[in-house]
Amino acid sequence: MTDLNNGTLVTEPRPGQWTHYRQCPICCSSEIANKWFVKGFTIAHCNSCDLLFVRDQLTQEELGPYYEIADTEFVYNDPVNEENLKFYFRNAKTLIERQVSHGRVLDVGCSTALFLDVMEGWERYGIEFPSQAGDVARAKYGTNIHLGTLDTFEGKHGYFDCVTFFDSFDHMLNPLDVLAKARRLLRPGGLLVVKVHDTGCLYAKLSGKRLYSIVPPYHVFFYTRPSLENALVKGGFRITEFRHMAHILQLKTIPFRLSRGDRASFSYSIYRMLEKSSVGGIKIRKNLHDLMTVLAVKED
Question: Is the pLDDT of residue 88 over 80?
Answer without folding.
Answer: yes
